Amino acid sequence: MTDIIQLLPDHVANQIAAGEVVQRPASVVKELLENAIDAGATQVTLLIKDAGKTLVQVTDNGSGMSMTDARLCFERHATSKIKSAEDLFNLHTKGFRGEALASIAAIAHVELKTRTEASEVGTKITIEGSEVTSQEAAVVPKGTTISVKNLFYNIPARRNFLKSNPVETRHIIDEFHRVALAHPQVAFIMLNNGSDVFNLPLSNSRQRIVNIFGNKTNEKLVPVEESTEIVQVKGFVLKPQFAKKGRGEQFFFVNDRFIKSPYLHHAVSSAFEGLFKDGMQPGYFLFLEVDTKSIDINIHPTKTEIKFDDEHAIYAMLRATVKHSLGQFSIAPVLDFNKDSGFDTPYEYSKKSPVAPSIEVDRNFNPFQKEAKQGNIAFPYKREKSPAWESLYVGLKQDVGIASSDLDNIEFESEEVTGRLFEAEAEATGQITFQLHNKYIISPIKSGMMVIHQHLAHQRVLYEELLKNITVQEAVSQQLLFPLLLQFTKQDIEIIKKVREQLEHTGFIFTKMEAEQLEISGIPVSIIESKAESVLEQLINDIKEEVPDAGYSQNDLLAKSMAKSMAVKTGTALNRAEQEHLVNQLFACKEPSVSPNNKPILVTFDVTDFDKKFM
Ligand code: ADP
Ligand code: MG
After folding, report:
1. Which atom of ligand 1 is nearest to the CA of 93?
2. In whole angstroms, what is the distance from residue 384 CA to residue 375 CA?
3. Is 80 in the pocket of ligand 1 (CB under 6 A)?
4. 258-287: per-residue pLDDT in tens?
């Protein structure tokens, strides 16, 4: 019998291995940036074209490579960073496997230009699909430039699998942030299709954070610092009032390497306990230094997870340190959402009922008409009726309009006494809806009772309205007396720019869009000025997290996101007129029963269900 086992040719083995190291252009960015840092560079420039799909190029002023090394660095397991297995337990560099360049060279067109300080001429090598196609002496500056072109050119399946350019660019920026944050002593420039995205001079850690995330970040930072025998912690957490709903800025670095650690995240989150509402997430930039022998960074191929020997001790220490910092900057005692805010009300105001800010403005408002009431949901006193809404009331009353006097037509099949009590109450207040726990609106219907989730109901109403405005492009704006100036990071402004048109159709008027600032002179009628910023912030967050492609899905995401942040919150008291208006608006919707995110908005209870309980 003939032998059937064959060794895979090198280039095939390299292609297979490449799959592990290089998932997308951002993986190339990470490897090249880390190599530049390992080479001792103080100035690193990253250039990408078409989200890195056609070009990722990194130039550094580091050590450079000799001609032999330049040739060798593309060989599998060629690394200058470990010499024996022992070294694996004492790593101070980012790379050590000697896999990255070999993998990248297997699936792209790569050009390397490099020169060491000691040699006068450098080397230029081109390599395609692991084959060296040229090698020559070249006059190049000290340091290294590696250009990776046409990633996955020989693996069309992988290339087709890549996401849209905005998504891939987002991944690249994430990697860039991680390396740049860990190395403030290195200057970084990032260019995207030739235009400047980041220009980060060498600085300290705080300045680096501010240079990346915008000037506004500076005042949000609370320093954290502590040192014990097993770990040294430095960095910043964001003040609790800047907690976000999405993940936002959460960075752990261990020995200057970005890592993900749900366990340590939990430690930090628990230090914030009680400082913000459930569902919010803290922001942090935390740099841990531990003995290299006490960690194992080898457990994950892309090396973003590590294992600590002393996990529990690090958890406890981190939690205590963050708590201490928050306390020291007297942030902790000021904010306490768990406390009943009623206790804080000055005496003379304690008897007055609070007036929540209005969240919707009457479009038919006419200053010359008699003043309309401002409440949580302002509205024209006009009822939008719809068959869906009406049918629930058929048989309950003759007239479908829910006028105050109609309620005494309702027949209660209960005991005499109770019935009379209710009628008396109804006559006095004309109430047909009422609010339970500032969360649900309860309304009697023909078959029994309907319970409506106020926040989800309002989301549905706003969602359909926003979507309509975006698609039919009929902007209705409230002009602001003074333009609103909002600070955002550069990347966030970029995101706003991408959805600018749609936002304008909802009613936003942008008068300026600068590097880190927006000037807004008009906002949608259904939000109040003070909420405009948080609506945009939430939107940016949602876009970052979902990154939809242009077109319908983007409009949908935008409408969903805005509806969610604009909708009246659970916990808001609504007066009767507001409750009724919301219910009417809801039943004028195309899909009144499910929220934009497919949660049920209302449930009904049959009278017979109640009857059974009284048997
Ligand atoms: P690793 O970083 O795990 O050693 P790589 O494949 O990323 O493996 O790189 C292989 C080797 O090539 C490195 O160990 C280093 O000696 C050399 N090298 C790579 N990039 C650079 C660079 N920008 N400057 C100097 N040397 C480099
Ligand atoms: Mg490397």
Report:
1. 2
2. 19
3. yes
4. 998 889 999 999 999 888 877 789 999 999
